[in-house]
Prior knowledge:
By secondary structure, the chain is α/β, with parallel strands linked by helices. The chain folds into two domains: 13-167 and 308-390, Response regulator (Rossmann fold); 171-300, Response regulator (Rossmann fold). It has eleven helices and 14 strands. The strands form three sheets. Strands 7-6-8-9-10-13-14 form a seven-stranded mixed sheet, sandwiched between helices. A five-stranded parallel sheet has the order 2-1-3-4-5, with helices on both faces. Strands 11-12 form a two-stranded antiparallel sheet. The protein starts with 12 loop residues before the first helix and ends with a strand.
Amino acid sequence: MKKMKSVVSLMAAAALLAGTIAGCGGNAGGSSAPAGESTATEAAEGSASSGATFKIGSIGPLTGGAAAYGLAVVNSVELAVNEINANGGINGYQVEMKGEDDELNAEKSVNAYNTLKDWGMQFLVGSTTSACSLAVSENTHEDNMFQLTPSASAADCVNYDNVFRVCFSDPNQGLASAQYIGSKKLASKVAIIYDSSDVYSSGIYQTFAQEASNQGFEVVSAEAFTADSKTDFSVQLQKAKDAGAELLFLPIYYTEASLILTQANTMGYAPIFFGVDGMDGILTVENFDTSLAEGLMLLTPFAADATDDLTVNYVKNYKEKYGETPNQFGADAYDAVYIIKQCLEEAGATPDMSVSDLCETLKSQIVKITASGLTSDTMTWDASGEPNKEPKAVVIKDGAYVTAE
């Protein structure tokens, strides 16, 4: 994986007053912190009530094989908070943020939640991945804290009424992927390789397979692997090749996908590769020949090459601050912060409200608002916690993600 810049401290209020605008391509200031040790914003001296601030926490894998997800989330929360503070805060109050590393481990995600709770977190943007978010939601539910996960897509992640998400659910990703492949007539024979030990992967696989018969293509091979057998995919690939699959659907994470593409190339098998949001990050895998990903497609709510002003500015500012092109996990997290901001402003909420009262306020507001952001021009929610928005498809071309035609 390419070395990503560490999450750093947000700028203090003094820097804001001096005219340095953070999150708009400037230097955020403060001391840097290594990945996994994100620091919080200094409390703003100019807040409306004796230094009172809103506190947003974020949790994700900032180290390890899924760091491309967690860093994008925490970095984008930081970027959004910087922008909000530079523009007067929320209802006149500044915002602090703190990010914690869970290393893609559910137990560590709960520990990270407790650390953030001790810090004074009032809302959680996280956890980044499904299993971790499911574990943390037991705590946020007990504490009645508002939880808005940018990217945890397992169906059960929003079982509690205090938990909402910005991303599509696993069932919706599977359904939308099958419909896209069918509507674009990308293949008549499709093979699937999925992780049966992972709720994310198996959930997408199930709805994809169910919808396939309605979309004019045949699933000719569906082969699983588990967390204990995710290095050698020769058997699964050979079955797909022997079945004549023209497209290989991979509802999995990018690390395993990079191995599959490498091994498929070795055996001379070159189908269309098609993934979902877990594929976002494959271009950052260390020692992976990214030319093998040329033509790979994935369904995502965000395309970094979009030409609207919001996307152009977000991508520009993110690149300047962190040295990378942001992925859809980051875009969902950036939207999440602004969704919380919109709800708090429309309710006239203040940071001296209890965590539970803020949660009830946000729960009542999010089902009323229509939000516009990086991942959709129009986003709405109902009490189920699920978003309503349109997906996009991107394709890797010349080593970059571009909008699919």
